[in-house]
């Protein structure tokens, strides 16, 4: 008899930490860095560059990569969109579970291949600092987000600094961007479930957002 494929019970994009938090119904919990998911993308165009693959050299310069969108694919996978333009990776539940199980081994292979290529990988601190600078150069808008009441427990965050892309011009687009994290984010941050303040004043969906705004997200009663 075939063993059923574990299914995620939660998929949460933690943008500050640049990782995908995935819980499965078999009890497995994995924190998968965006860099790791990008390098081991199952996309056909990525296959020659997967660490350990004899067809070619591995990918370099992915320390700063982030996931910008998570799109469900049927009931068996998600498509991850990365800010380096890669958007063809469809990650099935089986693939995500395998990448979690084999993370330590795969990561060691990746680092070894970078070393063999003579590539000096950025440290976590260097990547974070460089990533912030890159976002600023691309015209990202820096927003301070504060989550209230039940959202803190549901989303696992009370405050965060969001480096929103230039397309996030108003409250509606900001919430759509946050829902792209998937999981509880997609379900909780809808027009029907939350109201938003900008600089401590209740806002409309079309209220524009500017650099440095403080945005509160409050569940509707």
Structural description of this entry:
The chain is globular and about 55 Å long. The protein folds into two domains: 8-131, NE0471 N-terminal domain-like, CATH 3.30.2020; 139-219, Roll (Ubiquitin-like (UB roll)), CATH 3.10.20.30. The protein contains seven helices and eleven strands. With 221 residues, the protein is of the alpha+beta class. The strands form three sheets. It has a five-stranded mixed beta sheet with strand order 8-7-11-9-10, sandwiched between helices. Strands 1-2-3 form a three-stranded antiparallel beta sheet.
Strand content: 25-35%
**Count of individual beta strands:** 11
What distance separates the N and C termini?
A: 48 Å
Helical fraction equals: 25-40%
Helical stretch tally: 7
Annotated CATH topology of the largest domain: NE0471 N-terminal domain-like
Largest beta-sheet characterization: 5 strands, mixed
Order of helices and strands: EEEHEEEHHHEHEHHEEE
CATH class identity of the largest domain: Alpha Beta
Q: Give the count of structural domains.
A: 2
| Architecture (CATH level 2) name of the largest domain | 2-Layer Sandwich
Descriptive keywords:
globular, alpha+beta, Ubiquitin-like (UB roll), 221 residues, 29% helix, 7 helices, five-stranded mixed sheet, 11 strands, three-stranded antiparallel sheet, NE0471 N-terminal domain-like
